[in-house]
Amino acid sequence: MASEDVKATESAAVSTIVNLAEEAKLAREGVKAPSHAIISVCKSLIAGGVAGGVSRTAVAPLERMKILLQVQNPHNIKYNGTVQGLKYIWRSEGLRGLFKGNGTNCARIVPNSAVKFYSYEQASKGILYMYRQQTGNENAQLTPVLRLMAGATAGIIAMSATYPMDMVRGRLTVQTSNSPYQYRGIAHALSTVLREEGPRALYRGWLPSVIGVVPYVGLNFAVYESLKDWLVKDNPFGLVQDSELTVTTRLACGAAAGTVGQTIAYPLDVIRRRMQMVGWKSASSVVTGDGRSASLEYTGMVDAFRKTVRHEGFGALYKGLVPNSVKVVPSIAIAFVTYELVKDVLGVEFRISD
């Protein structure tokens, strides 16, 4: 009898210890899981932000030249091309002139890039999950079309979240030392636009921006990821080393993706810039620098398209395409590769192509 009591006591003790151990394990997992998830999100956002800042700063002079070509007065051409325009800025404004607006650009692109890359990862997971549920194939992978959808979703989210900064950046970029009115910085530009034009002005040109970002960002991700997958699986040019692509090859994939996306979406970018100038009293003189004026009144996106083509021809929709093409090739390539390299350094396991 005593023996049975001892066994029962031992059994109860063992059971208690096991239960306590399980509770401790669950408690630890319960505390660590959210912490690990938050850290992972932060690392992904940091990687995306660094990628955006590095890539845009590298091509800042070309970015400014592109915007100046897009919005200049067609009746008083001051910038005849990329090289001539850059030389003119160098002579009249110096080195700082080439990077004017880059601080605002980075202040916008860092959060934009962070949100865009993270949103793409999450959208890819969600779209892939729904695709597998719909097809009943648990081993299904993302197709180019699904990647396009995920990229478009990420682009819309990122653009909408940071659009006021983009609008202000456009105005800071086009003003020159001869402009009659000067924005003193990001905060001053934001407060001035709010005071003189109202809060809706901060989202002027948002519609063509969103329409343009769908093919632009969507194609960037779709082309980049599809090219990488094709090169890794088929290895047509012998570029794969240990099932990995070299940095140079990934840069080439990014350049190809950026070229395709920006060429298709560029006319919408021109219209967006012009609509952002509407309501700015000194817009024409800021661009021309000599006090001349030009009509900058548009009732909407369609009206802006119609007036631009009617008064300046179809070619006006591609003003600034050359500096933009030269800018996009390294910019997109650097952004993708920097993002992946920073994630590797930070130890983030999830990759875009997963």
Describe the structure.
It is a single chain. Helix content is 75%, strand content 1%. It has helices spanning 2-58, 60-71, 82-98, 102-135, 144-174, 186-197, 206-234, 247-277, 283-288, 301-312, 321-346, and strands at residues 240-241, 244-245. A two-stranded antiparallel ribbon has the order 1-2. α1 (2-58) packs across α4 (102-135), α2 crosses α3 (82-98) and α7 (206-234) packs antiparallel against α8. It is globular, with a radius of gyration of 26 Å. The model is unreliable at 29-34 and 284-294 (pLDDT under 50).
Please sum up the structure shown:
The protein has 354 residues and is mainly α. The chain has helices spanning 2-58, 60-71, 82-98, 102-135, 144-174, 186-197, 206-234, 247-277, 283-288, 301-312, 321-346; strands spanning 240-241, 244-245. The chain is built from eleven helices and two strands.
Tag the structure with descriptive keywords.
354 residues; mainly alpha; two-stranded antiparallel ribbon; 11 helices; 1% strand
Multimeric organization: single chain
Helix content: over 70%
Distance between the termini: 62 Å
The count of helical stretches stands at 11
Order of neighbouring strands in the sheet with most strands: 1-2
